[in-house]
Amino acid sequence: MKEPKVSVGIMFEPSISFVLNSPFLFNGGEFQGEESVKLSGDKILFQGNLYDSLQFDPVNQDSASFELKDVTIGINFHWERKENQVFKGSLRFIVENGKITAVNLLSVEEYLTSVISSEMSATASLELLKAHAVISRSWLLAQIQKNKEIEQSQIQYSTMKESEGELIRWYDREDHTNFDICADDHCQRYQGITRASTDIVKQAIAETRGELLMFDGKICDARYSKSCGGVFEEFQNCWEDIKYPYLVGKRDFPEGSPLPDLTIEENAREWILTSPESFCNTSDKVVLSQVLNNYDQETVNFYRWRVEYSAEQISELVARRSGTDYGTITDLIPVERGTSGRLIKLKIVGTKRTRIIGKELEIRRTLSESHLYSSAFVVEKESDSNGNPVKFALLGAGWGHGVGLCQIGAAVMGEKGYKYDAILLHYFIDAKIEKLY
Fold this sequence. Notes:
This protein is an alpha+beta fold. It has helices at residues 108-119, 126-153, 199-207, 265-273, 285-291, 311-322, 360-366, 407-415, 420-427; strands at residues 5-13, 15-26, 29-40, 43-46, 49-51, 54-58, 66-73, 81-87, 90-96, 99-107, 160-163, 166-169, 181-182, 211-215, 218-219, 224-225, 304-310, 329-337, 343-350, 354-358, 377-383, 389-397, 405-406, 432-435. The strands form five sheets. Strands 1, 2, 3, 4, 5, 6, 7, 8, 9, 10 and 13 form an eleven-stranded mixed sheet that branches. Strands 11-12-20-19-18 form a five-stranded mixed sheet. The radius of gyration is 23 Å and the shape is globular.
């Protein structure tokens, strides 16, 4: 197998300004300098001509780069902002959903250098970076393979099940059909060469070149999140109903650490309301800075956290975020929990409507202006003398879906002297690391 290429959707706007920092080829001509494209009907307007699509290929692959202006990062997260970003490889513009999409085409290892630099801090340990390189490479190639399988099967792929009393929806990345993956946290955080890659990142990529996590002859769907909250979640509780043997519930602590059954409500409550020891239970700023970029460090409490809403606030928020008018919300009732105590199903009780929602990200999106840190939470309700709710407190654990590698836990393991293969096999049970190219 030779090194694959990847296409990454970077931004989606009615017009896009960009700078070709060195000579690029398009349509038989050579272009360099500041340019722009604009949507005109269902075509792309560039230098007075209309095109269905455009692709700029670098004259010199090694030294060439281009800059995209005003790329939105952290879409729908609390730190959403715009920044200019620089990329290697080719630049393609296509039209989809009434906007122009800028797509970056480059080699997998070049892509990984940026992902690791964007996802991790330059201060991260070599073993953590090597572990993350294998994870990111595996996840990427597993997604590309999955896309091909979905397309070839021609089966209508759905990420939602809805009835009058229940809405179960999950968010994955199969909605990208014109490129392999997107550049935001929805897929993997990719910000070109804007996040300067360091020698240690390049070393981590080079020392694990072509290495993938494999199970039973297939590339692992290698997920990761910021903090599991002390226990790993299982894949089927967050996405489609596939049980992967290597993504199972386990405590984020050395082998043999006892784990209560957190699918049982009282066990989950006790676990979430205490702060049990685990690899990712750390407030060590040196360790956290390895995983958290500056804007991630705007969040400080994520192993255990608390969010409060008045009854009016939560009723308005849920109506706006879900598009469903529940009336005044009178209760939030846990229906089903996963292996980490994360809610898979939550019943929202209102004066106008009652409905069960899931899976974890649908719950997190419904109960927050952006994303609740996780769905591993318990609800504490305050009522007035007439029994009407006046305040809801959500007390939670972890940051993200909790499936696969826990970035903060892995950072702690790296500091404790664990090698990258031991870190990976702690989070991906009975998987194997194999070199495919």
